[in-house]
Design brief:
Blueprint (H helix, E strand, L loop, with lengths): L3 H17 L1 H5 L11 H10 L2 H5 L7 H15 L2 H17 L8 H18 L8 H14 L5 H22 L1 H6 L4 H17 L40 E9 L5 H10 L2 E7 L3 E8 L2 H8 L3 E10 H11 L3 H6 L21 E7 L2 H9 L4 E4 L8 H8 L6 E5 L6 H10 L3 E4 L5 H9 L7 H13 L2 E7 L4 E3 L2 E3 L4 E5 L2 E6 L2 H12 L6 E7 L4 H14 L5 E9 L4 E5 L1
Parallel strand pairs: 5-6, 5-7, 7-8, 14-15
Antiparallel strand pairs: 1-3, 1-4, 2-3, 9-12, 9-16, 10-11, 12-13, 14-16
């Protein structure tokens, strides 16, 4: 049997082990585009649990340790590999619910449930990846439940390593590159770090990693004060009331939400397996609490007099935004400030983009919040969630603009306290086109269909450099070469950025093409960008309109959008 302390220390050891070797995992990415961040994403995902685990007492149970880790990882998940890692631990946590200690059989069942959760989340699971390695490791664990935990975990690791070694036989691209799957290697490093503690050893030492700033909830429900012209008498429901309901069996969050809405406004009601998180502005907090206690025992109370808050702010002569920037620890707060849903506002938008130019483009197209991120730095679920909940709309559309960010956005969707629609935009040009096709006169479902239909018609070209020697689709690619990609596929290589760009743009233009947009990156001068734009204009048919945007994005010298 293992205790909660042992499981806590094991997860910390696993987090440190992959953090120490994340570069090694990054380098296993075989596609030559410079986005090799699997190790970084997985390390940052499990690392998100570090501070909370370290704060747990030695007396914690395995249920508490696993739940704390899973919850933090869910919010800290980055990239597809990070989301899958968080889901493995999420399932792991659910299997250990209510357990004080865990046997080999308990851990085997937990691994199996984690694998099931991860597979369910992936629409088209690919074998030869982290999923395969985790699944075969879990299957072996289930065969070894009569052993003690150290011996069972040894057998599990042996099976996982054999599965990892076999990944090149399942994915030809790995065999060509002579590497194993990066995600599979990452999860093995985590499991190996855990083994050291299960065997009775010390936590693997890790380099100091700065804790990621947590989303501040201090601003929750304070959007009512954003307007400096507001009068104190306008506040009818003067108590901002927030607490957790630790649910009794059969407790209905829907009924609690309905009661709160009938006795207040700005209601936020979030439910998971164990608790209901309720936020409401009300004139009578006691009435809300008296009703809530019927559904479970209450904790984490926070009741604030908004009349007093308002008058204090008015006296200071600061709006909400100004005050937020002047708080004691701005470095510990998200750049996004929580805003309660405004019943009068139907739609809002969150986009993900890297580069000030692209941020300005999305802002100009009515995006309410732009999350910084893209190819080399995938934002976490928590980052995207904070952006969503800063938009005071009943329905928030999210544009990930990168295939490796879609899963994190979908996890944020599940955690948000308002309706969220994730549009699976895989590139920035797709995101721009989707926004341009939003129609405020139709409902969310119709907009979703129409926006994605328009986005899917966009062709995206990318000009970047090869991060490593590789062979792809029969093409031998050398590190440092300029690569041209059309809709994610490498179509040519060159030694000249300008030539590669205009040739790609020309080849992407079809008879029915009308618009070509050249988006220049941070490593391209304005002069070079204008030169390329003029050449593209000359090379494309006369009926095609060619324009240039200074995107300022990293990694890609140019993005090309053809519609």
């Amino acid at each position: 049997m293992i205790t909660g302390q042992t499981l806590r220390d094991a997860i910390l050891s696993g987090a440190n082990n992959i953090a120490n070797q994340r570069t090694r995992v990054d380098e296993l990415n075989v596609f030559p585009v410079p986005d090799g961040d699997t190790g970084t994403n997985m390390s940052m995902t499990i690392g998100a649990a570090r501070a909370e685990l370290e704060a747990m007492p030695d007396s914690c149970t395995v249920a508490e340790a696993s739940k704390t880790a899973a919850s933090a990882m869910l919010r800290g998940a980055r990239g597809n590999s990070g989301v899958i890692t968080s889901l493995l631990f999420r399932g792991f946590s659910k299997a250990l619910k209510d357990k004080t200690e865990a046997s080999s059989a308990d851990l085997a069942a937990a691994l199996q449930q984690g694998v099931e959760a991860a597979y369910k989340a992936v629409m088209k699971p690919t074998e030869g990846t982290i999923l395969t390695v985790s699944r075969l490791a879990a299957e072996k664990a289930a065969e070894c439940t009569e052993l003690d935990v150290p011996a069972m975990w040894d057998a599990t690791l042996q099976a996982g390593q054999a599965a990892l070694d076999d990944t090149p036989n399942l994915l030809p691209v790995l065999k060509k590159a002579g590497v194993v799957d990066a995600g599979g290697q990452g999860i093995m490093l985590i499991f190996e770090g855990m083994k050291q503690v299960f065997d009775g050893g010390e936590i693997i030492a890790g380099a100091e990693v700065a804790a990621k700033p947590k989303v501040s909830s201090e601003a929750a429900g304070k959007g009512v004060f954003a307007d400096d012209l507001m009068k104190v008498e306008d506040i009818k429901n003067g108590y901002c009331t927030q607490f957790l309901i630790n649910k009794y069996e059969g407790a209905s969050a829907a009924k609690m939400r309905a009661f709160a809405e009938s006795n207040g406004d700005s209601v936020v009601c979030i439910e998971d397996d164990d608790v209901i998180n309720l936020h409401v502005h009300t004139a009578d907090p006691g009435k809300i609490l008296s009703e809530a206690i019927k559904y479970g025992y209450l904790t984490n109370f926070k009741i604030e007099n908004m009349h007093e808050q308002f008058l204090a702010r008015q006296k200071q002569g600061k709006s909400l935004e100004k005050q937020a920037s002047a708080e004691k620890a701005p470095s510990q707060a998200s750049e996004f400030i929580y805003a309660a849903v405004d019943p009068s506002r139907d739609y809002g938008f969150v986009a993900v983009a890297a580069g000030e130019g692209l941020k300005a483009v999305f802002t100009d197209l009515a995006a309410d919040a732009v999350v910084s991120g893209g190819q080399t730095m995938n934002p976490s679920t928590e980052d995207i969630l904070a952006a969503i909940q800063s938009v005071p709309a009943k329905t928030v559309f999210v544009l990930p603009n990168n295939k490796n960010i879609i899963m994190a956005a979908e996890q944020a969707q599940k955690l948000a306290d308002r309706q969220v629609v994730v549009l699976p935009t895989r590139t920035v040009p797709m995101g721009i086109t989707a926004l341009l096709n939003f129609d405020p006169s139709v409902n969310a479902e119709t907009n979703t269909i129409n926006m994605m239909a328009a986005a899917d018609k966009v062709s995206t070209g990318l000009i970047t450099y090869a991060a490593r020697d590789s062979e792809y689709d029969g093409k031998r690619i050398r590190k440092g070469e300029i690569m041209a990609l059309e809709n994610g596929k490498i179509v040519s290589t060159s030694t000249d950025i300008t030539k590669a760009t205009y040739r790609l743009a020309r080849n992407m233009c079809k008879k029915d093409s009308s618009f070509v947009t050249i988006i220049s990156g941070c490593d391209v001068s304005d002069e070079d960008a204008e030169k390329v734009t003029e050449i593209v204009k000359a090379k494309c048919p006369n009926h095609v309109e060619v324009s240039h945007i200074r995107g300022g994005q990293p990694v890609y010298y140019y993005m090309i959008s053809v519609e």
